[in-house]
Description:
Chain A is mainly beta.
Amino acid sequence: xxxxxxxxxxxxxxxxxxxxxxxxxxxxxxxxxxxxxxxxxxxxxxxxxxxxxxxxxxxxxxxxxxxxxxxxxxxxxxxxxxxxxxxxxxxxxxxxxxxxxxxxxxxxxxxxxxxxxxxxxxxxxxxxxxxxxxxxxxxxxxxxxxxxxxxxxxxxxxxxxxxxxxxxxxxxxxxxxxxxxxxxxxxxxxxxxxxxxxxxxxxxxxxxxxxxxxxxxxxxxxxxxxxxxxxxxxxxxxxxxxxxxxxxxxxxxxxxxxxxxxxxxxxxxxxxxxxxxxxxxxxxxxxxxxxxxxxxxxxxxxxxxxxxxxxxxxxxxxxxxxxxxxxxxxxxxxxxxxxxxxxxxxxxxxxxxxxxxxxxxxxxxxxxxxxxxxxxxxxxxxxxxxxxxxxxxxxxxxxxxxxxxxxxxxxxxxxxxxxxxxxxxxxxxxxxxxxxxxxxxxxxxxxxxxxxxxxxxxxxxxxxxxxxxxxxxxxxxxxxxxxxxxxxxxxxxxxxxxxxxxxxxxxxxxxxxxxxxxxxxxxxxxxxxxxxxxxxxxxxxxxxxxxxxxxxxxxxxxxxxxxxxxxxxxxxxxxxxxxxxxxxxxxxxxxxxxxxxxxxxxxxxxxxxxxxxxxxxxxxxxxxxxxxxxxxxxxxxxxxxxxxxxxxxxxxxxxxxxxxxxxxxxxxxxxxxxxxxxxxxxxxxxxxxxxxxxxxxxxxxxxxxxxxxxxxxxxxxxxxxxxxx
Amino acid sequence: xxxxxxxxxxxxxxxxxxxxxxxxxxxxxxxxxxxxxxxxxxxxxxxxxxxxxxxxxxxxxxxxxxxxxxxxxxxxxxxxxxxxxxxxxxxxxxxxxxxxxxxxxxxxxxxxxxxxxxxxxxxxxxxxxxxxxxxxxxxxxxxxxxxxxxxxxxxxxxxxxxxxxxxxxxxxxxxxxxxxxxxxxxxxxxxxxxxxxxxxxxxxxxxxxxxxxxxxxxxxxxxxxxxxxxxxxxxxxxxxxxxxxxxxxxxxx
Lengths: 725, 253
């Protein structure tokens, strides 16, 4: 075959001429550039024609793209997509060089989770399993907190107390709805030994021991927001222990709805017989409670959750209150209902509506005190949340109505409560309207997050003279979070918070409290190690209704400085050590003189060692601290009309101190699979060594002699549960 | 000689023109590079590692990805490459290297963008990481994996890999802890999803094979051979040479 150069040129010419229409077609392209919100070019963005997804291209390193091949169309609808960014559809015009497409970053889950969790901010998140595997909790959600450095609880109750503040300054929420008195078997000052929450209904808890975001109101010293289950596995759980029997049913009603129902009954017989020495102060108790939690995903954008609870409880225990020792009988019936509704209005805008109604009736009988109370609480909140890029803003309106009344008799003189004491009528009606609006925002950029929260009330309260508007206050809070690297965070936070105390039989007052806080928190989290350090300062104004110390409860100024260090280390595959140390300097002011608070503890060590292998767990927990402080009565002065001796206190308030507190607990559990079901056996010994930890001082009627009241001695508890799938 | 040269020139020109013809109208593939079709490249390198008993190809891709400008996309594929590399080391009995390689991948996803795909991969890697963990951390890791996989689905309800991750987790959870009750539904849901919610050559499309093999294994375990055979037939039509499917065939005979 002979082909010369001219022929070659002719063939090439004809090929090019023949292909011209196709090449021209290629040149009339749909072109443009894809950039992010900061106008930075995005490479590797897939650009595909919606109607013909085989026609696609990718953007180059400068964000440019060119789509050809659509023979006649002058406009075409194109889909832009890139991992980490929201996909976007846009109309492109052929030949236009001005097509700039902006892709927003992926919708973050705060959009759909903002109501469920604020844990990415400054909280500590505890899951259900954290509660079950907690060495000191006994599977109780609120007791689980006591192992952590930030818990400054010193009275073996379940009421959360954070960083030296009294329990009534902190608040417990369920799905962002406040729950007053979150404990069972509550005593005369409102504190109790177990929470009212069934751990099986809990998904997680967000704990804010320091400066919580002002999305939450009526809390002065931290809070806990309990989130109920997000999903369940069909199962039935039956449980039996030496003090309780119960059943729980989890059912998926459809792909988008589930329900949980439970009932428990607590009885005293075997527990008290076995622990007659360790629980000598406890005469009898019985509790029956039922609960219900249901979740319904109405659509991709709507969710509904219902939670209901009812409890009927009664307890008799020997206790000492204001120098009087006797049988304390208390009974309560209470029920509440919570509804949460969440709706995504768009990918940036969300709405939440939370409602609850709580009502209860109780009676307390302690020597000459015989008081019946009723209470009801209504809560409604409406929240709107907007998010764009690193900005997250939430605003809302909240109304909380708290009403209670007390009727009965009580001793005329606080120190005189015996059979022949003078009594007086106790009658009190309390009403509290809290109407507040708030604005809370965070902005994240690279490694920094900035937050600002503002909350303002509409003054609705009347003062003692009946003048409306005596409760005008403004709360604010801010923090800066520095993500040092993937394993370390540093948060500097400050805020002013307000909350109302809840009246109880011992302290019949509804006072407005203010707390100013400053905190620096450091967190290091690695695979096997986590380390936390916190430094904080607080100034509290207002009175506390949960204090055991009568004189101290009158103080209206408290200052607290503290340091917390804690480390959790997993080692040798089967071991975990949780160790924490806290140091606190807390004082209060009365008439310009400063005194140590009763819980002013120079040190508090908490250590727990756990071994877990082959579904067998054993843990030893040790708590060590100095005793709490108290004001010693040095003498008594007989008051004829009181028919009793009036205490004469030592000069220095809280100038005396109880003996050091040492406690060692042992917890053992074993999980045994039986076919497709699970049997759980557990055995706990609280205060294993039977240490006689002093709780209080009991005086003779004329205050000439005294002896100590002690915390629980050695207490054995065991039981089993069977989960059937 | 001259004619040969002319013929040679003609051949080159025709090839050039034909290349021009095919390339230009195809849409000016301006973004061609290491990330285009990256999943196949990593999967091939993973397979290659077992043939050569060395993860050289995987490590080469890892190096290439590290050289790219950092983005959610590069983080994702780097994490995926680490994940497969970890699987390789584990199968070779080097648990320490497997764990350390897996950790590198998880760190990337932890600090990076929170997309549906990132959550799905993170949840999958967290589930796998449990085997290297202290017993006391395992439950917590499983809980976090569930949370991340659920987030993945909430962000993109059509994400096959989100359902797959939850299905695998349920499949490997012992029955006495409630495992195995949702496996079938979740894996069927995964199979009903497209490989990619949005077609994109740089985005992940893995998971369908794993969903098939696990669902078939589930039916075999439940002794429901009829359903196992039905899904085996469907899967082998799609992946006739997949060794995991082939290894399941003996249980179906």
